[in-house]
Design a protein that fits this description.
The structure holds two protein chains of two kinds. By secondary structure, chain A is α/β, with parallel strands linked by helices. In chain A, 53% of the residues lie in helices and 12% in strands. Chain A contains 20 helices and ten strands. A six-stranded parallel beta sheet of chain A has the order 7-6-5-8-9-10. In chain A, strands 2-3-1-4 form a four-stranded antiparallel beta sheet, sandwiched between helices. Classes of the chains: A alpha/beta, B mainly alpha.
Chain lengths: 461, 282
């Protein structure tokens, strides 16, 4: 059951490509349902943010290339784009590489804004959406939980996110290159989304007082305006508000642009050359790129802010190093857990075999000890259970460790000498193998398949 | 020490100072911020003292020249250009002192260097013997115009930085260079204020010159004066700056296009020193 990842991000795909494959929240259930119905796909989670679009899948096929092919084909069909328009921008990873990638993403190490905390919420939302769509099974659930753990650790144990640059920082930095004193600037928010709220919060921390919020749902505009001590405007009036604004933050979920050169020209005449700084953080973009050709208009989209924030990566290299170690540790834990899962069917078989012996022996003893009272019989049963548990404990641990240690290229535990030895010792070769899914339902086996939680192995059993 | 050698020293000081102010923009934006910022700090921290030393040296140099030749500095092309450069340096130093805008020096001081360098070429030129040049009215005329030139040069430097900053901000991927250039609004405001002080001075200078011509204290007729290219360019310069000022004050215009007017104004100002003239000595 290989784990595959197919995705693209701000590192290798421009916003023009990313916006074509962006999966908005309202289409996510449909996208997940469509993906899950594909022949090879057993589990699926889609992580779609303004900076990345990644599909994580667990496939039935042992060859990851089949799963990757299915996902690419799904992307092409679902977004109605020819594969050649985006395939060159895709990264395709499987198994450990996919795990490591997600953990780096959740830790903010792969973000446009290094160490930003928002990605953690987006990873959590992606998992929640997949759980709602019943497309996340035990592996992807565990993987995303591990990713969230890694992200939390990076946030609490390192200074990567503290005092770091964010889109808000980048916006303020650029605004300070345009306006002498941004506290006197009027900020117009078009689209009362979470991103614009974060950006606005940072602008307010830097002294911005005058805020106007325009949103399609006027009630949301009112709520946001009240929250930031600003004024709400009707969405239809936002062009009028543009004539008075200095900084504009657009973050609507509109699939098309809401502002272009033609619309802005009459507004600019009224502004008489006053600078207008537009920050378009929406994906797909809200503002047509032709606006940037106008004098005294400075349009920046999410990609353009990349270089503004990139410089700080060097200044926080130590924090990056620590964060990489944390992500690596968490990644190793998950991989060990994933490998240990391979031992689960055999462990279940051994336990079942021992349990059968226990039951048989107890039945035999019951017929021989007719006059034994119930209290003494309970003691015998307890002793028998304890005995079988102790017998099963060492082989179980050994098999689990062997699975964890299974080297690359020998990932199948079946190739391990211990595996065949265990089958031989317990006489399982002649027995019919248990169904894998049944074994996972075994409460003892569940312990093996639980994500590693940092407790010593001995206590797990 | 002669006036010429003092001027050479002042030139060197201005040059090093301009380089120092320039490093603030460029070195701090290079790939290795830590090492480059230390280096740029090291260089730039000497830029201001060097500027003030240059101003002082030039003051002494102009004084020495006046004492040794018993003439007003405006009696020679060297003296006039040297004073023009000195005014630029003083204007920039004053604005830097008030608004802490060292980066403006990277664009303003090269103008001073061009004028001073040209002046040094004419160091050995014969001194004009006209008695009119020694009069107070000519001193007021030339000084008012040269002070206005100094301020125009600062406005020009701000405009150049504005255009550069505008270009950087317009680029798809913003480079870190922009962080060390003052905000567009500040540059626009400083250039506007510089022109606001310079334009009345230029107007006074031109009016005093016209009064001098109409008073008949000059050898040529008023018609000859007004037909002269030098006078024509002076008036054109005045019109350019009047247009700039009216656009700002009456129409409330701002922005990048207005900065090109300041660049055009500076070009016209420098052309004054380059065009041949029948009425002025240089």
């Amino acid at each position: 059951m290989p784990l595959v990842l197919v995705g693209l991000s701000h590192h290798n795909a421009s916003i023009e490509v990313r916006e074509k494959l962006n999966t908005a929240d309202y289409v996510l259930p449909h996208a997940l349902a469509s993906l899950s119905s594909a022949l090879d796909i057993r589990e699926a989670v889609i992580l779609s943010t303004c900076n990345r679009m990644e599909v994580y899948c667990v496939t039935d096929s042992s060859d990851p290339s089949y799963g990757i092919k299915t996902v690419v084909s799904h992307l092409s069909n679902f977004h109605k784009i020819a594969e050649d328009q985006f395939s060159s921008h895709l990264y395709k990873k499987s198994d450990e590489a996919a795990v490591q990638h997600l953990l780096r993403v959740a830790s903010g190490l792969d973000s446009l804004v290094l160490g930003e905390a928002q990605i953690l919420g987006q990873v959590r939302s992606a998992l929640r959406a997949a759980q709602s769509a019943n497309s996340a099974g035990s592996i992807l659930n565990a993987l995303f939980q591990q990713a969230i753990t890694s992200g939390k650790r990076v946030q609490t144990e390192t200074g990567l996110g503290r005092g770091s640059f964010s889109i808000g920082h980048a916006a303020v930095d650029l605004a300070r290159s345009i306006f002498s004193d941004i506290s006197h600037a009027t900020v117009l928010i078009v689209g009362a989304g979470k991103m614009s709220e974060l950006t606005l919060r940072h602008l307010q921390e830097c002294g911005v007082h005058s805020v106007v919020v325009a949103n399609r749902t006027h009630d949301r505009a009112l709520i946001m305006a009240e929250k930031f001590g600003g004024r709400a405007a009707r969405f239809d009036d936002f062009l009028e508000e543009l004539a008075h604004a200095d900084i504009v933050i657009t973050s609507t979920s509109s699939p098309h642009t809401i502002l272009d050169r033609k619309m802005l020209l009459p507004v600019l005449k009224r502004r008489r050359g006053r600078s207008l700084f537009i920050i378009d953080i929406a994906v797909p973009r809200d503002v047509n790129i032709d606006v940037d050709r106008l004098d005294n208009v400075y349009l920046k989209n999410i990609d353009d802010l990349q270089d503004v924030v990139a410089g700080d990566a060097n200044e926080r290299s130590q924090e990056v190093e620590i964060s990489e170690i944390i992500a690596g540790e968490e990644s190793d834990k998950f991989i060990r857990w994933l490998r240990a899962r391979e031992a689960a069917p055999l462990i279940a078989e051994i336990r079942s075999h021992i349990e059968n012996i226990r039951q048989e022996e107890l039945s035999l003893l019951r017929t021989q000890l007719q006059d034994i009272n119930e209290r003494d019989w309970q003691r015998i049963e307890t002793m028998a259970r304890s005995l079988t548990n102790k017998i099963a404990r060492e082989p179980t641990l050994s098999l689990k460790h062997a699975a964890e240690r299974a080297a690359d290229g020998e990932t199948a535990l079946q190739n391990h000498s211990l595996y065949s030895a265990a089958r031989e010792i317990f006489g399982l070769h002649s027995r019919k193998s248990l169904d894998k899914e049944d074994s996972i339902n075994d409460p003892d086996v569940d312990r093996v398949t639980e994500p590693y939680n940092g407790t010593p192995d001995e206590e797990t059993f | 020490m002669t006036s010429g050698s003092m001027t050479l020293l002042a030139f060197t000081c201005y040059l090093l100072s301009a380089v120092g102010f320039g490093t603030i923009i460029f070195l701090r934006s290079s790939a290795s911020p830590e090492s480059s910022s230390t280096l740029s700090f090291g260089i730039s921290k000497y830029a201001r003292p060097l500027l003030w030393i240059g101003i002082l040296l030039q003051f002494v140099s102009i004084g020495l020249w006046c004492v040794s030749t018993h003439n007003s500095p405006f009696a020679s092309e060297y003296g006039t250009l040297s004073t023009a450069a000195w005014m630029i340096a003083i204007s920039f130093a004053f604005i830097d002192f008030r608004s802490n805008l060292p980066v403006v020096g990277a664009a303003a001081l090269p103008v001073a260097l061009i004028l001073l360098g040209t002046g040094m070429i004419h160091l050995k030129d014969p001194i004009a013997k006209s008695t009119a040049l020694g009069g107070q009215i000519v001193t007021i005329h030339v000084m008012a115009i040269l002070i206005s030139f100094g301020l125009f040069a600062v406005a020009f430097a701000c405009a150049v930085l504005y255009i550069l900053q505008n270009k950087l901000l317009k680029e798809r991927h913003v480079r870190r260079l922009f962080r060390h250039i003052p905000p567009l609004e500040t540059l626009d405001s400083v250039s506007f204020h510089a022109v606001s002080f310079a334009l009345p001075l230029l107007t006074i200078g031109l009016i005093v010159g016209m009064v001098h011509v109409f008073a008949g204290d000059v050898p040529k007729t008023p018609r000859e004066w007004f037909m002269d290219q030098h006078t024509f360019i002076s008036l054109a310069t005045w019109v350019i700056y009047i247009f700039y000022q009216c656009s700002r004050l009456l129409n409330g215009w701002r922005g990048v296009r207005l900065q090109y007017i300041l660049v055009a104004g500076m070009a016209a100002t420098l052309a004054l020193f380059a065009v041949p003239t029948n009425t002025h000595h240089f």
